[in-house]
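Reopening: C-alpha cells for the guanosine-5'-triphosphate complex, inputs below.
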Amino acid sequence: MLQQKIPATVITGFLGAGKTTMIRNLLQNANGKRIALIINEFGDLGVDGDVLKGCGAETCSEDDIIELTNGCICCTVADDFIPTMSKLLERENRPDHIVIETSGLALPQPLVAAFNWPEIKTQVTVDGVITVVDSAAVAAGRFADDHDRVDALRVEDDNLDHESPLEELFEDQLTAADLIVLNKTDLIDAAGLKIVRDEVASRIARKPAMIEARNGDVAAAVLLGLGIGTEDDIANRKSHHELEHENGEEHDHDEFHSFVVEFGPVADPAGFIERLKGVIGEHDVLRVKGFADVPGKPMRLLIQAVGSRIDQYFERAWGPGETRGTRLVVIGLHDMDEQAVRAAIAAAV
Ligand SMILES: Nc1nc2c(ncn2[C@@H]2O[C@H](COP(=O)(O)OP(=O)(O)OP(=O)(O)O)[C@@H](O)[C@H]2O)c(=O)[nH]1
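Re-run output (same inputs, fresh job):
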C-alpha cells in the first residue's frame, strides 16, 4: 500500500521574531498529533533546542527534537538536512507531522527545494512555509533603516551587489511564505500595526494570508494542515540571491557574524542586563541569547535579547552533572567588532 506523504511545515523568520516561542506553543496544543521537530540555529549553543526540550509537551518527546548546528540549513541541505530527513523517515515510529525551524538567517528557498529531491519527494510534502515577523522591529524600521549605511559601504566596495542584508533577508523570507504571522503585536498600537501590514504587503508580489499574534499564540489547526505542497511552487518564489546568481554561485552568510562568550557567575543579573542593553545599542548587536549562572540560584537564567529589548527568566535547574557557567551567543553584522563587544560584555558582568 502506498504510504501517505508526511506533511512538513517550515517555520522561518528573522532572528528573534518568535519562531521558537510559536513552536513551543504549537507543541503544547497539537491535539495529540505526534510532531518531529528539526531545529537549525545560527551560533552553536543550541539554545532553541534546550528551550523546546524543556517544554514537556507529550506530543514531542526529546527523541523527536533534532538539532542541526552545522551552519545555516539553507547552506547544508545536502550534508545535513537530507541525511537527517532520511533517518527520520526510516524510523519505525514515523511522526504525523514534521516541523522545521530554520535559523533566523536562513533562506527558506533551498530548504523547500530539497523536498523535490527524489528520496524525500516520495515520502514528504511541504504543508506550508510560515514566516514569523517581529512586528515591533518592522514598525521601528529595522529592516529598512540602514539604506545610508549600505550606500556608504557600496561606495567603499564595488562588489557589493546587495541591498542591506537585513532588508534582503526579510524580503526573501516573506517571498517564501504561505502564511505570515505578524507576531509581537503587544508591543505596537493600531497605527503601528497598519504600518507593519503595509510594509510587509509592499515587499511581496504574492499575497499570502497574514495573521496577528502575541507570543506566537496561534492555534495548531491554523498552522498545520495548510496542504499547499510548496515544493511544487518554490521555483516561483526566488530569493534575491537566486535572482542575482542564476549561474549557481554559492550563497553564504558572510554578511553576519556570530561568536560565543563564556564566563563565570553573574552576581548582579539586573545590573548586568542593564549594562548589556548598553553594549547591544552601542555596537548594534542583532541578537544575544544563552544562559547565565546566578550564584545562590538553583536554576539557570535564560537571557534573550532581540536588539536592545531583553527578556530573562529562570528556565530550569542546573543538572547534577552540569557545570554551571554563563554562555551567550552574540550575532551581528559582519563588521561588528568582536573584540570590542567581548571586552564590553566582560566589563558589564
Ligand atoms: N513582547 C513579546 N515578546 C515576544 C513575543 N514573541 C516572542 N517574544 C520574545 O522574543 C524573544 C525571541 O523569541 P524566540 O521565540 O526565541 O525567537 P526566534 O525567532 O526563535 O529567535 P532565533 O531562533 O534567534 O531566530 C524571546 O525573548 C521571546 O520571549 C511577543 O509576541 N511579544
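Residues 13, 15-21, 41, 48, 104, 183-184, 186-187, 214-216, 287, 289, 304, 306, 311 surround guanosine-5'-triphosphate (CB under 6 Å). The chain is about 35% helix and 25% strand. Marking as resolved unless the reporter disagrees.
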